[in-house]
From TrEMBL:
It comes from Flavihumibacter solisilvae. Pfam families: Phage_holin_4_2. The chain crosses the membrane at residues 32-50, 57-77, 89-108. This is Membrane protein. The keyword Transmembrane helix applies. It comes from the Bacteria. Keywords: Membrane, Transmembrane, Transmembrane helix.
Amino acid sequence: MNFVVRLLISALVAFGLSYILPGISFDSFTDALIVALVLALLNTIVKPILIIFTFPITIITLGLFLLVINALIILMADKLVNGFDVAGFWSALLFSILLSIITSLINASDKKSDS
């Protein structure tokens, strides 16, 4: 699946989650597309740096600190995109968990249909 399709799926899932989760909101679907692009960039550039710096605490927590890093990435996207609003850390944490699970399931089902 190419990058544009994955970006659209992430934007659709994020936009849908904003209707379910009380602490997440988008002004428009265009903002959801921008957030999906910003999240892709942050996950590519910033997340590996955060993982390296927090490696000891990640080991101590048996990897659970990676959830905190994901929530921090969502909060960074909130600061960078004007039409995207996250109420706080716990909303960002729940949003990141659900976004990851749902997009992973969709991508996995797409890979099964390709083979």
